Amino acid sequence: MKRTIILLMALTAALGTVKLAAALRVGPATEKVIRITAKKFEFAPGDITVRKGEPVVLELTSEDRTHGFNLPDFGVRTEVKPGAVSRVHLTPDKAGKFSFVCDVFCGSGHEDMSGTLVVTE
Q: What's the CATH number where 62 sits?
């Protein structure tokens, strides 16, 4: 009988601890997903607007060949390969307009392959 009571008390304490931990857990902020397609010689969309301090995930895909995605003001750089999704997590910490470019030569017209990230307050 004592064992049963002790076992029930231990299970109740364990269950209470698990519920308390779940209630106190602070999950990650919800990230806004922005899909960007790279193709000769453009990014679509070319202009992206996000809010300062709000986490975003840039999901980059290529329609034709390997491209680069370089957003130097935030230290973001990745290769974008056909048939794959490149994910970049970013939480903008400053407002303004910031250019991103393809930094993998993709042919004549490559120098015009760019876009703008607009970060609002």
A: 2.60.40.420
What's the rounded Cα separation, in Å, for the pair 38 and 82?
Answer: 9
* Residue 73, domain extent: 32-120
Contact 121, 50 (CB under 8 A): no
- Which residue has better confidence, 108 or 61? 61
In 3D space, the residue among 91, 99, 102 whose CA is nearest the CA of residue 117 turns out to be: 99
User: What is the count of structural domains for the chain?
Assistant: 1
Q: Residues 78, 61: contact at Cβ < 8 Å?
A: no
In the prediction, which pLDDT does 85 show?
98
- Judge whether 24 lies within some domain: no
Do 55 and 32 meet the contact criterion of CB atoms below 8 Å apart?
yes
Report the predicted TM-score, pTM, of the whole model to 2 decimal places. Answer: 0.74
